Amino acid sequence: MENKQQLTEQILRMSGVNARKCMRCGKCTATCPSFDEMEYHPHQFVYMVEKGDIEPLMKSESLYTCLTCFACVERCPRNVEPAKLVEAVRLAVIREQGANHLKPQDLPELWDEDLPQQAIVSAFRKYSK
Amino acid sequence: MQKIGVFVCWCGSNIAGTVDVHAVAETLKKEPGVVFSTDYQYMCSEAGQNLIKDSIKEYGLTGVVICSCSPRMHENTFRKAAQSVGLNPYMVEVANIREQCSWIHKDMATATEKAVILGRAAIAKVHLNAPLTAGESPVVKRALVIGGGIAGIQTALDIAEAGFEVDIVEKSPTIGGKMAQIDKTFPTLDCAACILTPKMVEAAQQEKIKIYSYSEVDEVKGFVGNFSVKIRRKARYVNEDICTGCGVCTEKCPQKKVPNEFNLGMDNRRAIYIPFAQAVPKVATIDPNYCTMLKTGKCGVCSKVCTAKAIDYTQKDEFVEAQYGAIVVATGFNPISLEKYDEFAYSQSPDVVTSLEYERLMNAAGPTSGTLLRPSDLTHPKTIVFVQCVGSRCDGGDKGKPYCSKVCCMYTAKHAMLTREKYPDTDVYVFYIDVRTPGKNFDEFYRRAVEDYGVHYIKGMVGKVVPQDGKLKVQASDLLSNEQLHIDADMVVLAAAIEPDKTARPLATMLTASMDTNDFFTEAHPKLRPVESPTAGVFLSGMCQGPKDIPETVSQASAAAAKVIGLLAKDKLTCNPCVAHSDEQLCNGCSSCEKVCPYGAITYQDKEFRMPNRTVAVRRVASVNPAVCQGCGACTVACPSGAMDLNGFSNRQIMAEVDAICK
Amino acid sequence: MVFSYYPGCTLKTKAKDLDRYARISAEALGVTLEELPEWQCCGGVYPVAKDEIATKLSSVRALNSAGEMGNDLVTLCSACHNVIKQVNNDMRTDENIVLKVNNYLKLDKPYAGETNVLHYLEMLRDAVGFDKIKEKVTNPLTGVKIAPYYGCLLLRPGSVMQFDDPENPSIMEDFIRAIGAEPVSYSMRNECCGGYVTLENKSLAAKKSNNVLESAVSAGAQMVITACPLCLYNLNKNGSDYDIPVHYFTELLAQALGLK
Amino acid sequence: MQIEKKEFKPTIVAFCCNWCSYAGADLAGTNRLNYPADVKIIRVPCSCRVNPMFILRAFQRGADGVILCGCHPGDCHYTTGNYYARRRMTLLFSMLDFLGIERGRTRVEWVSAAEGAKFAQTMNEFVETIISLGENKRLEDLRCKK
After folding, report:
1. Rounded to the nearest 5°, which phi and psi values hold at B410?
2. Per the domain annotation, does C127 fall within a domain?
3. What is the pLDDT of residue B425?
4. Distance of alpha carbon A30 from alpha carbon B642, whole angstroms
5. Of C120, C152, C184, which residue sits at a domain end?
6. CA B78, CA B22: separation in Å to the nearest integer?
7. Is chain D touching chain B, with at least 3 CB–CB pairs below 8 Å?
8. Does B345 contact C at CB distance below 8 Å?
């Protein structure tokens, strides 16, 4: 229980988000371009972080389908910034030893000769530590 | 030396919970001049007041200090109690040990210590208090109502009904306000025009009411009972007294491309226009921004067709100066601009409309003559999406308004219901965060929309609207089923937040009436004085004070009228005796005080003074008109010789308080 | 007019065109772009977390180095612009980050967000002026219907980027008018193309890119322009349902100025 | 060497205009917003009633900080009172500089009747500033000490 609370506080601190501001309008989820690919949707991230249910989020593939396009951040009427929570949970995962989502050896398979460097750099920054 | 009584109130546990009231009373007993000190549960109760009265009599008190709640709450109560047993009311001082002590501190020792110091300061001040007698000022028996919407009309009618003269100043060419643009009213669905226009006519015909339409308030001077107001009557280039409202000019005017504000720009009017058929006064107005004659001097068609010869291109703004005893603010509201919310594509598609625009699209006198057609191609929309809370309930600042606009849930239910009733083949979706329907028959109304009319209410929000191939692709969330919905809509209706009219802020400055951070007028007390502004003689009616629907607006309008009638029924008002006065012996006639006085209450007169050796010298000295002085004290600081002082807040009194606090 | 210029790594490799046309156009417009003597990759994505310090350092170095030369910093790639601008905002507003970054970098003079960051488009709008560009155009793209694609990085978060109205931007439209072409307004211009997720989830990127192109095509566009190499890649490669050319805006600028 | 001191409890005088700031202070109370008990409020009809003398007097009598609160510019109940106050205080503050009184010991703040939270926050900040400045010794009249 204590661990759960610590984890929640860590997520809130890293993200700088005040999840309590959420009024549950669901605009984040309405605007999310990755909705179909997500198990937990932006409004659920906010609600679950507020409740302290971080672990299911950490195990979810949703972390890697968020595009960080900031549409939810821009359009949230309450300045809650759901994308920052997704990012914080993702970081909490990849900062654990050996929990990198993307490993260099995976790359050749994903490679494509037109792919700009930017995509690889970004993916490494997003998916591994 | 004064004989002072100290009364420490418990306010139940509000004060006694954090302040050791016994100890305060005991400690203050030892202060010089204090002959009696006690504590009691509720000083403001009748028993408490009797305790004060009895003690004044028994101990022959010449000064009273009450340690209790804020003086803004009960100072008058205690002053009246003292007066009833013959003590001058201005010999009573209140030490605020509730709002400024017990409620903000948790630790008993700290709070008690502070309460004692606040008590000491009040005792130090009372030592220097002097009995004051209030003067009187006459009341002008006429009221001014600013704004001619339903709020202003109702207030004016009620005041006139009671027999007082009342003027309405309305900035647009007709009275009626927003209600005139509304199609039907919730929850009864009666036609807004049918219930509003008789009231407009009644206002026009009521002998006691004078309507200044197309006019604005330019300047306000004076104070309660005697305001002096300068009204600008904007040039309408039509002689109001002669124009018969026949409307021929509005049909013949060649300038046809003027956005019609009554239909929110969805159709056009001419440069000379009568806003709508039932306008009051039914008089034409020339829009100087579009009139070719006024802009280039070439045209004059309206003048040629006017059989009454009412057109006057040379008309100038005119000014009326009038005196009023009371002023009612009824400046109303507007929907916010939706520029910042373009994820809903308001500026990208004509088929995305605000609720007020939808209201016009449903109205028989609207741009589509009451047939619901979507603006882009004038076809019947088959799927309509309503979005609630656009710009309401936001995080403030750039995001939008932090308040709930209150009326949107109900009018959206109304729109949805009416649409389904008239066009049963239409699919209607309402995206809501919460449905807020507290009001008589309100929830029943909303339930009818769902149960009887089959409106789809979806808990969630619209995230993006994409106009594409003649459709509006709506992407939204359904939170209860945890889905993202994609709806191809023909129209999207946005429930835009409401905000106070832009003219309210400068008006508040003119009236020195306070506003909150959202530009709504603040009331004197949020619960107990909801229709009065903290500025005496200024009253509030309708949306200018906060979001409200028509029945609430009308109740508030009548309540404001009742307050005005109560004021105008008096022949004289008791003035505030805490006014400035000048010590003629010290005054050197420098005029510093005269220059800073915002009320012109200070005049100079030549006065003879007896000098040594029986000589007489004539000196110029300041004198304050106590009926005009409002007691701000600006002059007391400007006075270089220390001649000017303020009753009730004298230099010595304030310094005694400073000393007591710093000791 | 002299600006420090941060090209970023993609512009040195896969997106050489974006860079090359920007440089020659700037020169023709009387703007000197001085490439920073040393720059490192910005990292591609802004490190959102408050406790990410090391990942912000390369941006701060670039910012500081432009500042030392007394120049505003011009960026071109949307991703670099987003990262550098957001980091600069942190350096202006977040005391904790400022303290830690400066402790680490030990610069001669601590950096606290003094440098201004401009996107190349902002430079065109504010420093050069679209009117002046219009005058210099020798080869106007008359009649070409172009859909501007902003994507997410240039616009959001709007409060930080201060680039344009995040929901209804107009700078690219104005640019398109300046080069003599006709802008096509469509609503998906500020929605995501799929971004870096393309690396492991092609179908997601394809869906997003096709949505954008669908919206542009239905609005009558003949061509799409972008400022971002990744957007270009996604729209070209993954937006395969629609056969519409996607170009860097600098390429069209150079063409209009008669430099291509 | 650290000399052990007992906790410094500053004396702070707050002049509040009756119409806005005093009501704002009341609202802070109504909303139970805490601020230190060191702040003692003196009610004046308008911020323009505050004579610079009062402030000097407070410092002389041992106050560690003096704050003046009035209506927001443009919102003065008496139309222009707060403008006078603002100008007077600007002059006074520059003179206090000259006397060697730290600038931070005085402050003017506009607090409306609706800004209970701002009132509490202002007072909290002000007390913090005063505590960091320590005791006011410069102008204190030793004869006024017990």
Report:
1. -75, -45
2. no
3. 96
4. 68
5. C120
6. 21
7. yes
8. yes
Q: CB-side exposure of B152: number of CA atoms within 13 Å?
A: 34
pLDDT on residue B625: 86
C167, B465: Cβ pair inside 8 Å?
Answer: no
Rg (CA), chain A: 15
Average pLDDT, chain C: 94
Facing residue for D75 by CB, picked from B100, B104, B514:
B514
Query: How many domains would you assign to chain C?
Result: 2
- Low-confidence stretches of chain B (pLDDT beneath 70): none
| Nearest Cα to Cα of residue D109 among D78, D85, D92 | D85
Residue D121 belongs to a domain: yes
The CATH number assigned to the domain holding D119 equals 3.40.50
Residue-wise over B186-200: b if at least 16 C-beta within 10 A, else e?
Answer: bbeeeebbeebbebb
Q: Alpha helices, DSSP H only, in B219-353?
A: 248-252, 292-296, 301-305
CATH tag, A2-96: 1.10.1060.10
Flag whether residue B124 sits within 8 Å of chain D, measured between CB atoms: no
Those residues with Cβ within 8 angstroms of residue C147's Cβ, 6 or more apart along the chain or in another chain: C183, C184, C186, C189, C216, C219, C221, C223, C224, C225
**Do C142 and C250 fall within a single domain?**
yes
Whole domain around residue C91: which residue ranges?
2-120
Residue of C nearest to B398 (CA): C159
Q: Is the ipTM of this complex over 0.90?
A: no
Residue type, B605: Q
Q: Cα dist. D64→B116, D17, D49, D57, D86 in Å?
A: 19, 21, 21, 12, 21
Question: Taking CB atoms and an 8 Å cut-off, how many pairs form between chains A and C?
Answer: 127
C78 in a domain, yes or no?
Answer: yes
Nearest to B472 by CA among B565, B382, B555: B382
Question: How are beta strands B285-286 and B272-273 bridged, if at all?
Answer: antiparallel
Helices (H), B173-221: 192-205
**Do C166 and A74 lie within an 8 Å CB cutoff?**
yes
Q: What is the rounded average pLDDT of the residues D117-132?
A: 95
**How far apart are alpha carbons B237 and B311 in whole angstroms?**
6
Contacting residues of C for A65, CB less than 8 Å apart: 197, 201, 204
Percent of chain D as helix, strand, coil, to the nearest 5: 45, 15, 40
Domain that holds residue D73: 12-144
**Given an 8 Å threshold on Cβ–Cβ distance, is A77 in contact with B460?**
no
User: What does residue B603 show for φ and ψ, rounded to 5 degrees?
Assistant: -125, 165
* Residue D6 lies inside a defined structural domain of this protein: no
What does the block give as tokens for B8?
């420490």
Instruction: For residues C86 and C92, give the distance between their C-alpha atoms in angstroms, rounded to a whole number.
Output: 10
Cα C70 from chain centroid? 22
CA D113 vs CA B405, B510, C208, C214: distances in Å: 22, 18, 51, 54
Look up residue B280 and give its two tokens. 């009051």
How close A126 comes to chain C (CA, Å)? Answer: 8
Taking 60 as the threshold, does the pLDDT of residue D5 lie above it?
A: no
Give the model's pLDDT for residue B202. Answer: 97
Q: Do C50 and A14 touch (CB under 8 A)?
A: yes
A23 contacts B343? CB cut-off 8 A: no
The pLDDT value recorded for residue D1 is: 47
Q: How far apart are CA B30 and CA B123, in angstroms?
A: 11
pLDDT at residue C57 in the model: 95
**C-alpha closest to that of C176 among C134, C114, C219:** C134
- When computed from its CA atoms, the radius of gyration of chain D, rounded to whole angstroms, is 15
What residue ranges of chain A are covered by domains with CATH 1.10.1060.10? 2-96
